[in-house]
Amino acid sequence: MSSRRERSVRAGASLPGRQGGYILVLLSLLTVGLILGLMQTLSGTRSRAAQDARTMQALQEAKEALIASALTTDSLPGRLPCPEDISRIGLSTEGSAGSCTNADMHIGRLPWRTLTLPQQADGTGEQLWYVLAPNFRQAPINSASVGKLTLNGQGNLAAIIIAPGPPLANQGRPIPTAAAPPLASDYLDGGNADGDLAFFTNPVDGNDRAIGVSVAELTAPVARRVLAEIAGPNVNGQTPGTEPPRYGLRHYYAQTGNFPAQLDPGSLSIDPAASGWINSNGWWSLPVGYARTSNGALLMFGPQTLLVKPCTLQPCP
After folding, report:
1. What is the pTM of this model?
2. Which residue range is the domain that position 238 belongs to?
3. Domain-located, residue 167
4. How far apart are CA 306 and CA 313, in angstroms?
5. In Å, what is the CA distance from 212 to each residue of 107, 190, 218, 306?
6. pLDDT tens digits for 298-315?
7. In a shared domain, residues 284 and 173
8. Which of 92, 132, 159, 227 could cross-link 106 (Cys pair, CB 3.0–4.6 Å)?
9. What confidence tens digit (pLDDT) does each residue in 122-177 have?
10. Helix axis angle, 2-13 relative to 15-71, nearest 10°?
């Protein structure tokens, strides 16, 4: 009898130990679950950060390509391309710019082939979209031009590039074809597909990411090119050291031994290939700063400056 009672007491004494073991196991499982959940969250955060970084890189590359394209358009520097030609979707020339009017806003996919870019996509794999402001297809285009687009309230934009991100709940995105081209409403947030000139990035109700091209950013490189044409090329294609400069202030100095007291376009011989677009774009109607200095002549277009040094034989410094 006594032995039975002792065994019962010992068995009852072991229950708290078993319960404690169960609790430790449960706590271990919960800890593992929390760690796995945290790792998944961190992994998702890193993945989104990588996507965002790729998106911003693609937007910046597209912006730089647009500015470079405008600068190197010999017939009309400052002119921006039209959006993608939808009739070429599915062809080997897909991604080429289409044709468009000057007076209207145009929106479509980025003409990556015309910009000599690889097919540009955001971090989620969607092609970039492109908005072209009115009046950047024909002359005059200069630093006094007005960009009618706005992005998050910032105005005077000549273009906007948009990364559409993954589709929203109300967007369907069938594979685009020339017969059924992509619709802005299937790719862009509602406020960016409504046809007006105001664009937004709203991470609460949408997922568009965008970057603008201001008129100043577009025309500053062109202004520097204008100053270079007024100065005159430093090499004219002749055998170096055998002939004087042919054009601009460098030609004037080679002919007279001095720079002019005042900048008079009529007294300068400008390269005919550049003279036409400089005049048609209205650059001469803008104030060009000019001053003779102790070591040359200083040209100024707003913040853009160029010092032209004396030169009688090309190549010039």
Report:
1. 0.83
2. 232-308
3. yes
4. 19
5. 14, 18, 10, 28
6. 999 989 999 999 999 888
7. no
8. 132
9. 999 999 999 999 999 999 999 999 999 999 999 999 999 999 999 999 999 999 99
10. 10
